[in-house]
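[Solved] Which block belongs to which protein?

Original post:
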Amino acid sequence: MHVTLPRSRNPHPETPRPRRSVLLTAAAALAVAGPLISAPPAGAAGTPAAEVSPHAAQTIDNIGASGAWWVNDLKNFDPKVQARVARLLFSSNGLDLSAYRYNIGGGGTGVTYAPRAPEDFRRDDGSYDWSKDKAGRTFLYAAAAYGVEDLIAFVNSAPAEWKTNGKSCGGHLKAENEQDFARYVTDVTGHFARQGVKIDYISPFNEPTNSFDSCGQEGMLVDVPQRDDIVRTLGAELRARQQRTGIIADESTSTVKFNDEVPRWIDEPGTAQYVDKLAHHTYDNPSDADRARVYETSKSVGKTSWSTEICCFGKGGTGWAQEYDPTIDGGLSLSRIIHKDFATAHDSAFHWWVALSEMIGTDPLAKNDQGWNDGLIYYDPNYATNGNQTLYFTKRYYALGQYSKFVKPGSVLHGVTGLPDGVEASAYDRDGKWVVVVNNHNTTDTALNLHFNSRSPLRAAKAVRTSADENWANVARPSVKGGTVSASLPARSITTYVLDQKPYAGSSAITGAWQGEQSGKCLTADASGAAIGTCTGGAEQSWSYDRRGALKGLGGYLTVGSAGLAATSDFTGDAAQRWLLNSNGQTVSEATGKCLDVGGQATADGSRVGVYTCNGGANQAWFRQ
C-alpha cells in the first residue's frame, strides 16, 4: 500500500563486493551454531531455557527494499550522496540487502505527483529509448555492482495507451493488450540482461484490488479473472525467449485478500507452472491466525510465499497509522513484523517498502503526526530550495539490518519456543552455523537462556545490538554453558547473536508431555492417533520431536491422513509426518499448513485431536511440561 500525500545522523559505510549467492557477509567470518535441543536445563538465575526447534522450517531467499519513487528525487542530489546511499543499502557495511526491487514505470500519464510518475522506455512509435529512467537505472545498476543476490522488477501500471482509461493511474489493462504488455516487460528484462544486469524475478502487477484512481501514484486494477491471463501470457513470452526470469504474484494488499484470491487464479489450467513465488503485503496488520493461513494457502498450491511490502505503521503498534517515528519504538515494531512473517507465516523473503522517503513531517529527529513511517532513511522534501541533502536515519534502518546483515540467502529458519513474555526470537542455521535475532519489547532488562542441544561445543562469536542509544553496536557476547546461551537483554532492544559450532555429530530430540493451553490436558496417544487426557506422566503422554520434524508417541509417528490423524509405525519422510513448532504454541502440519487442534474446543478427557485451519485459538496452543 502506498502513501499518496503531497510532500510536505549518522555517518555510514561502504565497499562493493562481487555477486554471490549464499555468503554470510556483514559478519564475514562470523559463525553460527549447529543443531538442537532436548529438555533444557535452567539457565542463569534459574530462568528456564527456551529451545531452538531441532527441525528446520523454510529456507530464507532474501531480505530487501524497494527503489520506487525516491530515486526520482535522488537523481537531483550530489553524486557523492547518491553513492553514499548505494553503500548504505547494498554494501556489507550498510544493510547488505540481498534483494532490491526496481520499479518498471508506466510513464506517469495522469499522475499528479512528479516523483511518483516514473518514465517508461517506450516511444510513441513503439520503439525504445533506453536512456529513460536514469534515476531508477542508477540504483538498479548500483545494486547489481554490489552483488545484491536477487534483483526484482515490479510493475505498478502498464503503459497508459494499453489501459482502459488511458492513464498510468486507475483503470485496467485492456485484454487485447495483454500480449503487448508481456512483450514490453520481456523486452525490458531482456535489455537489462544484455547490460549485464539480470532481473531474477518480475512482478507484473501490484496490489491488484486497489483502484489508484486518485492518481497520486501509478497503479492499476487487475481483477482475479485477469491475473492468471497476465501470468500465463508473460510466462509463455519469457519462456519462448529463454529468459530465466521468475514470476512472482499477486502482491495482494493484505493477507486476507491473499488467502482468498490466490487459489482462485493460480488453479486455472496452465497457470501455476509460470509462478515461482507467491507474494503478499501485510497492510491488514495480520493476526497470527491470518499469517498462519498464508502458510496454509501456499502449501495448498505447492508454492513458497514472500512478504513483499509493508510500511506506514505507528502509534505504538504494527497497524496502519500516520506517524513519523525515528525511535526504537518504530524499530521494534518493524522487527516484530519481520519475526512474525518469517516465524509464523513462514515466508521465505521480507521486503520493506521504500528504502528512502521525504515524509519527515515537522521534525526529522523526533516523532510527529505529520510525517509517515514509509522509509528507512529520510531526506528533506525541500532540498531543491534549501539545498539540504542531509540523510536522516531511523531505527527501522538499523532494525532491518539486524536481519539483513546476518540472515543471508540459504539460511534455514528454526522456531524458538518457551521464550519469556515480551521476547521474540528466531534462529537461522546455515552450514552448521547459527544466527539468532532476539527482540525484547519489555521496558525492563530481561534474562534470556536459549538452549542448543548438540554434541559439539558451542561458542559465541559476536553480538550486535540496536536500542534507544545503540546502532549496530558490538556488545558483550553471551555466556555459553552446556549448550545454553545466557544473556541479559536490555529493555527495548534488538540483538543479533552469531554463534559458532564445529561440525556436529547429531542432536537429541525434544521429549516430554505436550499440554494444551485451553484444556490443561496432555496430548495422549491412542489407537486412532491422539486425544487429550488428564496429565499423568504416563508413557502414552510422552512425545519425541526430532530434527526430521517427526512427532512420535507410544503408538507411532503422528501422521495426517484423509480421515484425520493416525499413528504410523514407520517414518517415511512424507510431509504428512512432519510438523513445525511455532513460537506461539502452534504445531503445524507441513502437509496441510493446518494446526494441531482439539476439536470443538473440547476439554474433556478423550476429546479428539486433529488438524484444523490455524485460527489462533487456545485449543491450538501446546506447551511442553
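(Second protein starts here: sequence line, then its C-alpha cells.)
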Amino acid sequence: MMRFVIFPVLLVLGALGALAGVFWASGWWALCAVMVVLLALGVWDVAQRRHSVLRNYPVIGHARYALESIRPELQQYFIERDYDGRPFDRDTRSLIYERAKGIQGEKAYGTELDVYQPGYEYLLHSTAPVAPPRQPPRVRIGGADCTKPYDMALLNVSAMSFGSLSANALRALNRGAALGGFAHDTGEGGLTDYHLENGGDLVWEIGSGYFGARTKDGDFDPGMFADKAAHDSVKCVSLKLSQGAKPGVGGVLPAAKVTAEIAKARNVPQGEKCVSPAWHRVFATPRELVRFVARMRELSGGKPAGFKLCVGSRVDVLAICKAMLAEGITPDFIIVDGSEGGTGAAPLEFEDHVGRPLTEGLMMVHNALVGVGLRKQVKIGASGKVASGSDIVKRLIQGADYTNAARAMMMATGCIQSQRCHTNQCPVGVATQDPKRAQALDVADKSLRVQRFQQATVAEAGEIMAAMGAHEPHELRPDQLIRRVGHHDSDSYAELYHWLTPGELTADPAPDWAGDWEQADPDRFGQRTHERR
C-alpha cells in the first residue's frame, strides 16, 4: 500500500498550500493548484486500463515513461545497467512491446550488433525468394497411437504455473491464445479455472508433484487425471522431467503461500508446505518412462502425450530412444527446454551452470531421434528465450518443429523485467499472488497484446523463411544458419555439427556417438560406473 501514499501526501500538500494562500501569500495557491492537478492525474492513472505500472504506481509511475521518452542514453544508464545481460536486451524488449502494441517494428540506421563478434549468428537469404505463406504453418502433433491429433502453431505459450503467475496473467495469456489460435501450456501447478475460463487450447503439464492429479500421499491419481484431461480445452498432455531454470531440482511452496486457490488447483492441503520433488514416483527407468507416457495418452482419451526436459547426459537421451525401440512406444512430442530459460525465481548456480543450453539440447534430441529412425514419429518443441521471428527460424533449422515462449509472452502481458518475481511484489501484476497488484493487469487489453505479439512474430518468421527461399519449415537447411567463430571466420551449422542420417545409430554409429550409444541402457538412467584410477 505504500505505493499509494502519494494520494495523502498530495492532499496534505494541497491543503497546506491553500491555508498558506489564505493566511500568508497568494502565491501559495499555485502549489495548491499543482497538487490538485497531480491528484486528478493519480485518479486517472488508477482508472485507466492500458498501463499496469500506472495503476499500481499512480503519478510516480510516469517517471518510467519519461525515461523511455529520452532513451537510449538515460534509460540505458538508469534502468539497464544492473541487468548484466540476463533479461532480454533493449532491442529485443522493444521488439516485443512494439509488436504487442501493434506498432511496426522498424528501425533507422540498421543494426547495433557487432556482426564480427565471435558467436554472432545470421541467416542466409536466397537470391530467388518466394512468396510468404498465406496462412501460418502448423504442425500436426500425434503419432500412430494418437486418436486426437492437434495442429500446433509455430509459436505458443510456454509452461508457467498458477502460483508463479497471477490469475489475471493466466487469463490474459489464455484469452490471447484463444483469439490467436495457438496453445497455452499450463505449467506444473495444476489445471485451474483461470486456464479454462477463456477457452484457449491447453497443453496440460504434469510434474513430479502431480498437482491437479494427485493422491493425498503424493502419488499420481489416474482417475483424477482422466477426468480433467477429458476437458475439451485440453489438447495435449505433457510430463515434465525437468525445466531449464533449475534442472534436476524440485520446488517448495511455503505453507503461508498455499492459499485456498492454490490448494484447490494443486490438490494439496491448504496452509501446508507444498513440495515438488526432484524425481518422479511413476517411473525409474527409461522403459518405465515411455510406458507411462503411453498410459497418459490412453487416460486422456487418445490425445497427444509427450514429455519436457532440459537435456543433461546424452547417454540418458539415447537410453530413452532405446526404450522407445524396445517397447514400440513413442511419445507424440518432446519439448526441449534450454538452460537459459526461466521466468521467475530459481537457484542462481543452477540458472548459470547446470543443464544444456537450448541449441545443444535441441540438436542432440533431434539427432538422437534421427539416428534411431524415429524422428518422423516424434515432434519436437523448443523452449528458451524465443522472442522473434528469427529465433523461430533458427530453432527450426536446429531441429525443432515448433517453439514455445515464456518470458516474451510475459512481456506481452506487461512484464517490465523488474526481476522481482520471487518477492511477490511484481510492479505490473504479472508474477505475483498479491490480488491488489494483480488487479492492475487488465485482461482484455493484455490478451489482445498477447495475440498481436504471437501473430506478428509468426508472420515475421514466415517472411524470413520466404526470403530464404523456403515455402515450408521442412525446406530449411543447416547450411543456411551461419555462426561467426572468429573475427575472420564463419561456419554454417552444417559444418559446425555432425548431423546423423536416419537409422545411423542402430546400423553403424559414428565414433563420436558410438561410446554413448553403447553405454545407453533402456533399463537404467546414467552411465555405467567406472572405477577411478
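Accepted answer:
You had them paired correctly. Confirming on the second one: Residues 443-467 form the longest helix (25 residues).
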